[in-house]
Structure formats: C-alpha cells, structure tokens
Amino acid sequence: MKNRRKHVVLLWMLVCSGLAEAIEPISTSIAVGMAAALTGFLATYPNILYYFHERCLELDLDKKLFGQHIASRIITKAVNGFMNNDNPKKPLVLSLHGWTGTGKNFVSKMIAENFYKEGMHSSFVHVFTSELHFPHASQIETYKSQLQQWIKGNVTNCAQSMFIFDEMDKMHPGLIDSIKPYLDYYDKLDGVSYRKAIFIFLSNAGGESIIQTALDFWKAGRDREDIGLSDLETALSLSVFNNKKSGLWHTSLIDKNLVDFFVPFLPLEYKHVVQCAMAEMEARDLKPDMSIAVQVARDLLYFPKTERVFSVTGCKTIISKLDYYV
User: Fold this and answer.
1) What is the pLDDT of residues 168-214, one digit of tens each?
2) How many other CB atoms sit within 10 Å of the CB of residue 239?
3) Which positions bind ATP (predicted)?
4) What is the distance between the alpha carbons of residues 281 and 231, in angstroms, rounded to a whole number?
5) Domain 57-265 adopts which CATH fold?
6) Cβ-count burial of 298 within 10 angstroms (0-12 exposed, 13-18 middle, 19+ buried)?
7) Concatenated DSSP letters for 57-74?
8) pLDDT confidence of residue 22
9) How far apart are CA 121 and CA 225, in angstroms?
10) Does residue 109 carry a pLDDT above 80?
C-alpha cells in the first residue's frame, strides 16, 4: 500500500507539472515511456492517467476561471466523464455561450492543455473561425464539403481529435448541419469512428438571456452562486435555436439532441475583473499588485450604466490594460 501511495504521488507530480512525456492525445499507453517503477502500476490501474489529468483540469478551472461556477462544474464532469469512458456512444459535443470576455475560449484552451501535450498547438486540436474559414455565404456548399473532409481526415488520423468552432453566432445557418452524421450515434461511418472526438462550439448567441437571468438574481438580492443550470438551460437552448443570425439556427444538432451540454457563461462583475488582473500578473511572473488590479478594473465599462454591475468586455481587455500599467 505504501509503494502504491508513493507511485500515486510521483505520477501526480509528473502529470500536473507537465513533466511527463505523454503521447498525443494522452492515453494509458504512456506507461511504455514511464519509469520502470510506474509501469506495473499503470498496467494495474489502466485509467489512472485520466484520473490525474481530470484532477489537473478541475484544479485549473478552480484556480483560473473566475465567476463561472456553472460552467466549471459542467465542463469538469462532462469532459472527465467522457475521457474516462473507453467506449462512448457518440462524440462529446459542448456548446459554450455567453457575453464576450467571460471565458469561453479560455476554457477551450484549458481542456486542450490538460489532455494534449502541445495544448492548442497540438496537431490533434483544430480551430475553425467563422469569419476566417467560412467568410462567403455564396460558397456554403463548398464549405460543407471541405468541413466534412477536414473532420473525416483528422479523425482518421487521430480518433481523439478535438474540434473547436469559434464565432458560431457569425456562421452561416445550415453549414454546421453538414457534420451532423459525425456527431450522431454511429459506430462507424465509411469505416471511421467519430465516437472519441470532442466538438466544442463557442458563441455569443444566447448571451442576452444569460445576462437577463443574472441581472434578475442581482435585483432580487439573490446570490450569484444560487443561479443553477436549470435557471438557464431551457431558455438558452431555445434562444440559440431560434436566433436567425446564429450558425445554430434551427440546426438538426439541437433538434436531434446531439448537443450534450449547453454551457452558460455568466457576465463578470467588478470583483472577477480584479481576479483576472491579479491572475494575469502572476502568469507574467510579476508580483500581483492589488492596487494595479483595482485600477485596471475601474477603467473598464460596466452595465447597466447606473448600477455598473457587469463588465461590458468581461476580462477580454485585461492584457492590454495591464501593458499600460506595468
């Protein structure tokens, strides 16, 4: 038992410190490259590596993501549960919604960094931006064909590929439906299994309904942490589904219940902006200075205008603001 405990502690240090030379995407086959003392342990506990990476993800979210108790809880459980499932029935599909600067891209980055050695730079993590990759409505049929080929080719190369679609609110309606078969409950399509892939959609669509709920709680004097997924999910999914300017407008992905979780990101308050500024200074290896963080937070715009409750840009402009003060 003592030896097992030592091995657990050692593996925890290796994985969470980033020292382990993991194979992309991270899998239990890492045992081949580990020290001989750990090889037998990993063989005995084949899912132990996923356990440590899920703990790292949970700690990262707790330490670096501010004001998002709902999103943090959903992401942790959804991603960890999926990665621990050796035989998922379908790909994991997450749709992240909220106002700008609330942490959607940041969370996608953390997921990638915790499960792929090269993080967002991994050849198995693919990011599509609507205005860059799909700019012209007249070429939507070409985009559909290209998108199908890109996904099929990459999943053929790596079953555990991750696909991030940014700016879904700017995507041409109907385009995302072209990948519906890859997100459905199929063992294989043309000899390729997509069940271990992860698809993440990022969108500002639905942000208004999230803000309204948060504002209603604030006006009623209720604690922000009392807001639950049940207070947001139904209104959020309907808002996104019926938004004609969104890439998810009347999409079969929602109609056929292929989106596993609609993840709401709440608007950030003044205190969260201060936390973001302090964390950014620490990330730059600077001594966190509360006076600077407070000054940065005060310089931002807040709404509603009279109450100044929520940051208009969330934490998005923190980096450039800090450049001025430090």
Assistant:
1) 999 999 999 999 999 999 999 999 999 999 999 999 999 999 999 99
2) 20
3) 98-105
4) 34
5) Rossmann fold (3.40.50)
6) exposed
7) HHHHHHHH--S-HHHHHH
8) 44
9) 34
10) yes
Q: State the binding site for ATP.
A: 98-105
| Nearest-angstrom CA–CA distance, 33 and 274 | 42
- Which one is predicted more confidently, 250 or 8? 250
Q: Which two tokens stand for residue 23?
A: 């194979």
Cis before 46? omega within 30:
no
- Do residues 270 and 259 make contact, with C-beta atoms less than 8 angstroms apart? no
Which of 131, 194, 142, 140 lies closest to 167, judged by CA? 131
The letter for the amino acid at 50 is: Y
Residue with tokens 């200074």: 281
- Percentage of the residues of the chain whose pLDDT score is greater than 90: 75
Does 105 have pLDDT greater than 60?
Answer: yes
- At residue 28 the predicted structure's pLDDT band, cuts being 50, 70 and 90, is very low
Q: Look up the pTM and report it.
A: 0.84
Which residues are annotated as part of the binding site? 98-105
- Burial, 138: exposed, middle or buried (Cβ in 10 Å; 0-12, 13-18, 19+)? exposed
Angle between helices 2-17 and 48-64 (to 10 degrees): 50
Spatial CB neighbours of 287, under 8 Å, sequence gap ≥ 6: 281
Q: Sign of torsion, CA 106 107 108 109?
A: positive
Domain ranges of the chain: 57-265, 270-323
Query: Of 117, 128, 207, 107, nearest to 158 (Cα)?
Result: 117
